[in-house]
Amino acid sequence: MKKNVMMSTAVLLLALCLFAGAAFAEEANTRVYTLNGTTGFGMAGMIADAKPGYSFTVETDPSVVTAALVSGDCDIAALPTNAAAALYNKTEGKVQVLALNTRGVLYLVTDGKEKIESIADLNGKTVYAPAQNPSFIFAALCSKYGIELDIDNSYAQPAELNAAVAAGKVSLAVLPEPMVTVAKSQNQDLVVALDLTAEWDKVMEPGSLVQGCVVVRREFAEQNPEAVKAFLTDYEASVKLLSEDVQTAAAKIEAAGIFNKAAVAAKAIPNCNICFVTGEDMQRELGAFLEIMLEKAPQSVGGKLPGDDFYCILK
Asked: Structural domain of residue 129, as residue ranges?
């Protein structure tokens, strides 16, 4: 009789362990989407190392990522900051921002013939810029400086504009890293005339130019708080790699499919302003940026500021 009781207890314990293990695996299966380019650089270590408990998808189009968040196919995603705010407004608060991951990455590039020494020199010029976030930011910056110019979005995607700049078809362009580094490697005459982050900090709240962030579906965050905390811990370590070991980070960026040339990524990383900012600092910096965007390009953030519950601040 004693033996049977012991066996029954053992079977029960085994069943409980198996159940707990299954539940843990289910909870830890966090589906993460990221974009190629700078917004995804900080995620490269996690992806390349095949960090257990996650499934990763790398996309080129932010609209695909936002659609996955809306449908529930994605739990956590890296997005442009304005897209995150617009998605919050569109879904009535179903997404929250977890961390900032990219500050300003925009630069004014010339063909070497145009002499641009200050942003005032752009007055009356035609400057090509990728659509959406880069154009919104550049327009807000020029407005603050009182500069009147034509912003041309003929080359809507950064890669398209990069090719045109490298081929000498464009005299003045706003390009993000790592496209600046790519273009310069293909055309030695190109000149980086202005660091737009530095120009922004002269007339806006310093540090308020934040272009990339990581968001989470509110439902996932509420149901899986420990998985979200674990993600932030792993993600912070992945981001740190970019400043601690650029060559290894660049190799992982290529291996993860986030950018196809490690050598170019290594040159670009110091100018990409990758960061990891959470909590009240995140809310203060992103809040300042979104207020500027709401004033200058309200459609870029969905027409209104997100509420305080947009910011997922873990205790």
From this structure: 106-203
